[in-house]
Amino acid sequence: MGRLQYLKNVVTLKLDVAKCTGCQRCAEVCPHGVFAIENKKARLIDLDSCMECGACQNNCPADAISVGAGVGCAQAVINGFLRRTGPDCDCSGTCCD
Amino acid sequence: MKSGDGVRAISITTHNGRQVPRIASELNRADRLGDFKVRLALGRMRYTIEPGIYAIGEPTAESPVFVSANYRLSFNRLRSGLVGHDGWILVLDTKGINVWCAAGKGTFGTEELVSRIKSVALGEIVAHRKLIVPQLGAPGISAHKVKEQSGFQVVYGPVRAKDLPAFLDGGMKATEQMRRVDFPFADRIVLIPVELISWGKHILCAAACLLVLAGLRRGGYSGRLVVSEGVRSVVILLTSYLAAGILGPALLPWLPGRAFSAKGAWIGLAISAALGLQSRPLWKSWSDRLDILAWFLMIPAVTSFVVMNFTGASTYTSLSGVRREMRIAVPAQLICAVAGFGLWLAGRFV
Ligand code: SF4
Ligand code: SF4
User: Fold this and answer.
1) Backbone phi, psi, residue A55, to 5°
2) Given CB atoms, is A96 within the 8 Å cutoff of chain B?
3) Number of the ligand closest to the Cα of A57
4) Where are chain B's structural domains?
């Protein structure tokens, strides 16, 4: 059995190669190997594996990455819907551990 | 000592004469029992560690600083990854939530880290300017901003604390494998109890309703039906819930489909099919046919919903993806559940 993969063609991650300085931070922080650095530039090698955690965006010193960061949690989406707020992870640490 | 439940601490004196609580890196039996209780969600919220600075082993001003959350399991995992090493642990106030969740919420974040560095006067305790932050904390941290605001350089440590010794011995270099998050069988299995407890109350309520309503029949109410049909319905409902809560996580990679709701629906269809075959001799009357059809709708609705909720515990689902699958799955689950329940109820009266 290969790696677990979630839905295709849905993530909001965008990379602005022009701004990238090739510092490698994104490749370092990404838990799913979405980036590779080639010729001093970041490249998206596995976009569908992105879980939109936002680590790359927050750690890119050149502001070259944008992603609608959030937690991929159905319960949070339901909570947000019921309370008319955004997705609200209310799991007190019981989720991703 | 105010260091939280079950974490024993004595003190160590730093080079500049400050007292810092010192904790053992080996976990003893009380620690392990405590961790087990956290897993079962028994009094989970009490299992916090007082934020601040802790010593592990015999650290000096040159020893590395590790950043952690004040969630007991995060803290203890870091401790056991550091057996035989000397260092400092900087515990952030994440409201008792683990590093990854807290990073997502921003409580394990740049602001808290910078202010904690200042409030414990970390710059006086250590001579170097380096922090080892768990990689899973990266969603909440901007390494370059931490550097700007505190002078400390963030080095991202491995995802799993058990890789810490290799990371430290390798000159603070993480291998590709140490940087990757996966979701192996053992990790999925330990999440089952919490998953089952989270919707358990609702399911028991639903089961109680079925039990009471099962006594309805044309022109009255029958206690005998409660015992036969009611108990049967409760057993089917609870079996479906447990099957989804256990098999969903256990068989995740092998269940067809990428969407969790689809994976869950398959479990329900399998149960419905088994139930349909098992009760085939009964298909003669209309009330039996309605009953089978009702369960064919209700069971997959329940199992699909339960497994869909496992997205939150998984380590690879994106918010955009969850939203996309929910747009289809939730209405489908609702329609099936309501229609199934309607048929089940109608079956009482034909
Ligand atoms: S973190 Fe930003 S600047 Fe650095 S390599 Fe990645 S995209 Fe480029
Ligand atoms: S958002 Fe997270 S998972 Fe997606 S590319 Fe960035 S670091 Fe990787």
Assistant:
1) -60, -45
2) yes
3) 2
4) 3-181, 186-346
For an interface test with A, which of B113, B135, B319 has the most A Cβ atoms less than 10 Å from its Cβ? B319
Write out chain A residues lying below 8 Å of B102, CB-based.
93
CA B137/CA B194 separation, integer angstroms? 23
Ligand 1 pocket check for A12: Cβ under 6 Å: no
CATH class of the domain at B3-181: alpha beta
Please give the backbone phi and psi of residue B23, each rounded to the nearest 5 degrees, phi first. -120, 150
Which ipTM was obtained for this model? 0.91
Q: What is the pLDDT of residue B46?
A: 57
Tokens of B104: 């997502």
- Give the position of tokens 């974040």: B109
Question: Which residue segments constitute the domains of chain A, with CATH numbers given?
Answer: 1-66 (3.30.70.20), 71-97 (no CATH)
Kindly report, residue by residue over B159-213, the tens digit of the pLDDT. 999 999 999 999 999 999 999 999 999 999 999 998 898 889 999 999 999 999 9
How close is the nearest chain B Cα to the Cα of A30, in Å?
Answer: 7
